[in-house]
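User: For my dataset I need records formatted as: sequence, then structure tokens, nothing else. Please produce one.
Assistant:
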Amino acid sequence: MKFLFLSILSALLLSASSVTHQVKILEKIISEISLKKQITIWSDDRDILAQLEDNNRFKTTKHCQNATMIILRDKKELLPECSQADIFVLNYELLSEVPQSFGALFWKKGRPNIVILEPRIKAQKIKITQNLKPYLEEKIW
């Protein structure tokens, strides 16, 4: 019983730590881009949204209709009226499934990977700093 409890506690701590690392990476990415308007973020991942909100570096919203940037984990959570925002996804496959998405942060072999699609950022008039240039891709792999 003690082993089961420790296993569950370890899993919860690792999961919380994983979200914290993911948010730190997202914060860095967001700070390195500029959109047509002030960035107001909404995410379908409540943990990510809460951590971004606590940070106070970025403006967040509880309603996707008010967002200029959406951080999306699940395509089913994207309402049609919210699809006009710039979308950054948390799953590589979503880059194909959500054509208005411009980039992705995902984990592969235990490491974070960042992909930003150059044709999409040009079409959406998103500017990125020199620090994000190594993550530019011409197309989805």
